[in-house]
Structures are given as structure tokens and as C-alpha cells.
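User: C-alpha cells in, sequence out, please.
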């Protein structure tokens, strides 16, 4: 089969004035800055398409912030947004809470903190990576079907599933310090595949880097 690239795009900044870990909660929309980030990514892909890139397949997590990030790309490239449950945010015990030291010290949370290597407070890292990789492979095949050799797909997802997938793809341990993830808002983690579906490399880029200073760093994205 022809070579293909699947871009895992993290969504833009979310309007979250209470600073909660929003996880899979509905109706968390992009902030004004997040909307600007999404438009920047749409322009990035549009420019690449004008230069000959074959970006033929667009997929997004069902969560509002991912759908809103995908919308400008859909409009710029005239692509339908395909909703994919397998690239949704990870489940998390602390969803809807402000995760700080005072909250973590409450006894009701202690059973969920027993093993950070799984992690015990949410969906296992290995399960996240497995579901996203399965979605990536399906997107790769669909992109080839639509665009042939060199086709590209864009999957709009969330930081933790993207980072877990990258660690898995690179053969690294899945447990990690959340502060050290290389996966900023609207960053691209690009999986490049050979003609037989073998992963050749993982590329990383930040097309909206100029908009990152001052952006929210609240977890749950």
C-alpha cells in the first residue's frame, strides 16, 4: 500500500474560567484564543494543500472542543468531519474537579492514587494508546483510499491520548510526568507510515506556536 501520514492534532484552548479538569464533560467550548488557534491550523493545512499536500480525511473526537477545532479545517479544505469515539479524551476520576493539593488530600480520593503507573485514577495508558492506534490505522487506510500515495489524514484529539499514543509508537514507557508532555495546544503529532503500514517515524510541530504564550495550562485537555 502507498505511504500515508496521520496527524494527531490537539484541540485549541478551552473556555474554562473555573479551572476544572473537564475531561469528557460536554459543552466545554473553545475560548476566543482557541478559536484563533483553530483558524491558524486551518490556514496551515490550507497552505500545505495549495502546495500539493493531499489532506483528504478529517476526523474528530465527539467532544465539543475537538469538533470546534476541526470546523475551520473542514471549511478550508471542504472535508466532512468524521466523528470518532476512539480518539476521545481519557476517562478520569477527577473529572469536573479543580485538581489541587487540597483536593488530593481528601480521603475519598486516596484509593484512586495508589498506582500512578497505570494510572489508577483513570483509563489505563495502554488502553488509550490501543484505541487511538486502531483509529489511526483506520484513518491511514481511508486516506489512501481517498488520496492514494502520500495521502494525509487529520485526527483532532486530546493531549493525554495523543501523548500515550506517541510514547507507545516510540517504544517508551507509558507512565510519565504530565508536566513534561510535548503536546501543546493545536500541536501536531504526525505518524508517518511506509507502504506496508509500518511506522517510519513520528514528527512533532506547533503551527500555532505564536499563540501559545499566555494560553491556559489547566489540565483535562
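Assistant: Sequence out:
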Amino acid at each position: 500500500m502507498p505511504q500515508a501520514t496521520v496527524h494527531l492534532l490537539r484541540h485549541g484552548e478551552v473556555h474554562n474560567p473555573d479551572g476544572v479538569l473537564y475531561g469528557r464533560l460536554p459543552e466545554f467550548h473553545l475560548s476566543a484564543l482557541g478559536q484563533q488557534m483553530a483558524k491558524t491550523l486551518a490556514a496551515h493545512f490550507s497552505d500545505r494543500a495549495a502546495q500539493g499536500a493531499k489532506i483528504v480525511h478529517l476526523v474528530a473526537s465527539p467532544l465539543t472542543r475537538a469538533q470546534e477545532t476541526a470546523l475551520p479545517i473542514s471549511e478550508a479544505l471542504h472535508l466532512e468531519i468524521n466523528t470518532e469515539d476512539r480518539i476521545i479524551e481519557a476517562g478520569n476520576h477527577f473529572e469536573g474537579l479543580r485538581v489541587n493539593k487540597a483536593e488530593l488530600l481528601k480521603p475519598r480520593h486516596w484509593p484512586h492514587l495508589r498506582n500512578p503507573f497505570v494510572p489508577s485514577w483513570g483509563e489505563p495508558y495502554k488502553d488509550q494508546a490501543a484505541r487511538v492506534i486502531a483509529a489511526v490505522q483506520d484513518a491511514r487506510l481511508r486516506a489512501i483510499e481517498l488520496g492514494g500515495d502520500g495521502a494525509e489524514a487529520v485526527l483532532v484529539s486530546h493531549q493525554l491520548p495523543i501523548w500515550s499514543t506517541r510514547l507507545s509508537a516510540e517504544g517508551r514507557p507509558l507512565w510519565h510526568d504530565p508536566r513534561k508532555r510535548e503536546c501543546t495546544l493545536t500541536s501536531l503529532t504526525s505518524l508517518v507510515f511506509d507502504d506496508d503500514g509500518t511506522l517510519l517515524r513520528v514528527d512533532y510541530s506547533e503551527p500555532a506556536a505564536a499563540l501559545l504564550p499566555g494560553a491556559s495550562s489547566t489540565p483535562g485537555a
